[in-house]
Amino acid sequence: MKRGKEFENEIKNSLRYYKDVEKNVMFSKNELLGGKFHFHEDLLPDFFVFTDRGIFWLLECKKIQNKNSFPFWLLKKHQIKDLRRVSKWPNGKGVVLLNFRSPKKSEEKWNEVFAIPIRKFIKYVKSTDRKSLKRSWVQENCMRLEKRKFEVPKTKKEGTVKISGWDIGKLLFKKED
Fold it and tell me: Tell me, what's the pLDDT at 34?
């Protein structure tokens, strides 16, 4: 599996639960929408999400196997530009989902997911001489998503199946401050 695809699949599983069970989300992965994005498919954000609250989310997933920090260069200029553009729209939200995950062969295990709004990310980058986001700063200043299992309908058969994901609903349906 390509680097980061495991995390993207977990987020897709989470969104599938809110779409198929809660029925309060529509989402698309790497597809063009309404002429707003004119990029090659590989340059599109990971997820476009619409909630029943009328909010449009652009989500970019980043898996980091460095225990202590997220290097800024992992978030590409076009990704920042698109997330920022959407965050300026009425009811638009651009968010980076950071997954700090230990390498498979590592003796020490860690697996945490945090949501950082693109505006907060940009503000941090502009305020520091560092070349990375410290994990400790992320833990103190960003929303943590919990790992969870979801029960969803089987795709072509009756019954349900349990899938692994992250509590993305905590982000998508949080009360505004």
Answer: 44
